[in-house]
Amino acid sequence: MEMEGEDYEEHPPAPLLDSLELKLWSFYRAVIAEFVATLLFLYITMTTVVENKQSKGTCGGVGLLGEAWAFGGMIFVLVYCISGISGGHVNPAVTFALFLARKVSLPRAVLYVVAQCLGAVCGTALVKGIQGSFYASNGGGSNSVSPGYSKGSALLAEIIGTFVLVYTVFSATDPKRKARDSHVPVLAPLPIGFAVFLVYLATNSITGTGINPARSFGPAVIYGHKKSRDDLWIFWIGPLIGAAVATAYHRYLLRAGAFGSKNLGSLRSHPASAI
């Protein structure tokens, strides 16, 4: 049963163009935080993927579960660390969803995506520099459509996987839910990281799990394999579609009742996060 007279704060929607924030150090600090976080995310996860492939056939590999924990666990750590600075997006699809929900302005969204992509390239370059010949011989952690699957199947897997992630982000950071379920002490980054973990297990055999355009972009640039570049559009279009659908589902269906005159900007909540 829904509580009446909710005790929670609603924020107005972010302006489309906010020239004032471009003059604030906090804005650029947030962009830097997104760059560094995505760099660290790619470094840890791609190192884990490359080393696991190198160790196959021995007892030293972490296996699929280990890779999934690296992705989900790193998102949990990074979102926890920078959510109060940048919102902890670490994913262009999440930034796109939050822009559609009017939680961030267009300049912030654009600079976040640029920072995330640059961070992904730099993080992957570090992996290549440290791993040396092992990096190229083990696929460079790149995403591509796996043999036996069509591009349509891979695109759908990316759409659904990103939907799960973005839906979790909105649910975990919803101020109305936080007020209603304040007796349940759940740390927002935890379900977000766990969502990444579960999606990785479900889609790894199909696409290697993208659900984050920056994660796919970095290895495609550094590894430079033709197939990973040819398939890269799937790992941009799929996550962006999934993010848009999840935004519409949460904003206009699940939270439709909150969009009266008082609650028009209900989705501009506390920092939202993801992969």
Descriptive overview:
This protein is an all-alpha fold and about 280 residues long. The protein has one domain (about 25-260): Glycerol uptake facilitator protein. It has 11 helices and no strands. The chain has helices spanning about 25-55, 65-80, 90-100, 105-130, 135, 150-175, 175-180, 190-205, 215-225, 225-230, 235-255. The model is unreliable at about 1-5 and about 260-270 (pLDDT under 50).
Give a short synopsis of this structure.
By secondary structure, the chain is mainly alpha-helical. The chain has 11 helices and no strands. The chain is 64% helix and 0% strand.
How would you describe the shape? globular
* Percent strand: under 5%
Radius of gyration: 19 Å
**Number of domains as seen in the coordinates:** 1
Q: What composes the largest sheet? A: none
CATH class: Mainly Alpha
User: What do we call the CATH topology?
Assistant: Glycerol uptake facilitator protein
Superfamily (CATH H level) name: Glycerol uptake facilitator protein
The share of residues in helices is: 55-70%
Number of strands: 0
Which architecture name does CATH use?
Up-down Bundle
Order of helices and strands: HHHHHHHHHHH
The number of helical segments is 11
